[in-house]
Amino acid sequence: xxxxxxxxxxxxxxxxxxxxxxxxxxxxxxxxxxxxxxxxxxxxxxxxxxxxxxxxxxxxxxxxxxxxxxxxxxxxxxxxxxxxxxxxxxxxxxxxxxxxxxxxxxxxxxxxxxxxxxxxxxxxxxxxxxxxxxxxxxxxxxxxxxxxxxxxxxxx
Length: 156
Hints:
This protein is of the alpha+beta class.
């Protein structure tokens, strides 16, 4: 005679079928979740934009850019402050990469080509003032004097 606790167990064949059906459902969900929806990327459209703005302090800021159907960009941006200090950056971005050149009259700039971005400066080179060293008296610590005073005289 079998023990009564066996009556609540599934048969081995039923357990295998139940496990197989669970694995099959999980695989079906994984397959459906792995489907990638690819949206078509629209072709680049030609465009052009720009602005020219002067603020309340007299600073002029400009920008303009154009793009073509091959995704090439050509543009510039810059500013001129109220004192006439100006900087303009002209750039091209195409199949050969991003290339920029800077035109400026900012004080302290020189014509150079750092990092393959030429800078053309029209500023006047200013000589730095000579360094004058201030002379200050050097403090000296007073020597420590150890001394004894004579004992007071006793008056009777």
